[in-house]
Amino acid sequence: MWTKPGLPNTAVLLAVFLKSTIAVDCGIGLTYPIFSNQEELDNVVANCTVWIGNIKVATDWNGPLVLNNIVNLTGYFTLETSSNNSYRPSQFLTSIEAPELRYLGFLDLWGVSNLTAITLPRLEQVQSLTIGAIKALPIRLDAPSLVNITDELEIIGNLPIISLPSLIEASSIRIAGDRSSLEEYSLNVSIATPGVTLDFPVLIRAGLINLAGNISSVEMPSLVSSSGGYHLYTSSDSWNLRLWTNGNPLDVKFPSLQNVSALDTLNGTFRFRPSTNVTFDCRPLQRAVGIDVSGNVTSYNLDSLTYVDRLLIETEQTIDCDPAAEAWKRMHPRYDNNGGGYGSVSSPYEYYCNGPFEKEKKPFPKVAVGLSVGIGIPVWFFFMFALWHSRKEKRKAEEIAKIPPPDYEAEMAARSAGGGEVLPDYEPRRSQGSENQPGSVIELVDMSRPSPHPPPPPGYQDAVGNGSESATTPVVAGEVRTGGIAGNDEPRSASVD
């Protein structure tokens, strides 16, 4: 029988082409194989592009794992489990790579102590991606094409850098250094965990964001909304954006954030567990179900808020509550601060701020104020006038006291030369004499100054008569004169020693 040369070669090439272009479904059924080495895995998936079901890695796998050919894995890529469905970690699995994988149901890896890299270069969508690494060695996650996480991204362990440069939307993002930080209501700071850098440059929407542990930095510049998500297993939507951090102060900025269902904080707001005082600024956030601010917060800014159901500010520092009260009143003008709601009607709205308490002002009677003003003003004016007059008299007396008294001799010479009134001669005082004797001089004064009056003419004394002063010898200038006082019609006499 004759055959055309080259026909078998053409058939082989056609088979290879069809194999590369036609999707082949594998893994149909309830039996899911557990692979122990690379050779077993390659033999099973060699002709498959779609794997319906799970792929499990045995606990004795040793070395790297490469999932070839598979484009879509609908079930779990996970580890071997025991009879009670607990994971049996693969202690010697070092790396995982799926070069063709674009769609994945669940990547669930727990307790991988020697895993160093997860490489998914073409992965675009995953329902859930969970990595729980209890180890000291760092893990590198490489998924540059991942756009959508429909349920949950949960990473626990030592991943120094988590960068998803193409991720736009995620229903849930949970990242922590240890499991207890995600499940408990307080951050376990006794567990030392390495710092992690989070980079989600194009993430726009995330239903739930829970970041806990030693976080070095967070970059989510395009995040607009964090609301409407839920935890895959607990269906919890009590909070939607929570950052619990320890270690160094963390500066977190969401410049595009406009809507969240709740903001929950620990020891700070967007800067968590600070060792120094920090500032809370929620701009450009507009709407939130609840905002809780606590820790070492010294100031805050709520100007961009348009609506919030719950606003709680409980800081360790004394803080001014007036801006918060004004923002709350703007959003809830009918809210009764004293009654805790809208009067007697219960409401879900809550406001609290632990700033300095305002002292209660006691009412002061208006009548008493009027009387005090009416009486006090005249009394005040009288007091001020008396004080002014007293100071004026005091200044006048001080000015007079400063004028020195005139010199006596100079004054005498001035009066003699100028023809003014001459001061009278000095007459010494005399003691009281006996009945018939004149008193003696008790004080002597130098009368060397010539008298301006001429002596009386002769016979003047005789012409005066009784009761007049008489002298037997005229008084000469410069002599001491003694005499007595005449009385009872007795003649007076004078003698000169």
Automatic annotation (TrEMBL):
Region (Disordered): 413-497
Keywords for this protein: Membrane, Signal, Transmembrane, Transmembrane helix
Membrane-spanning ranges: 367-388
Name of protein: Uncharacterized protein
N-terminal signal peptide: 1-23
Gene source species: Cadophora malorum
Domain of life: Eukaryota
Keyword Transmembrane helix: yes
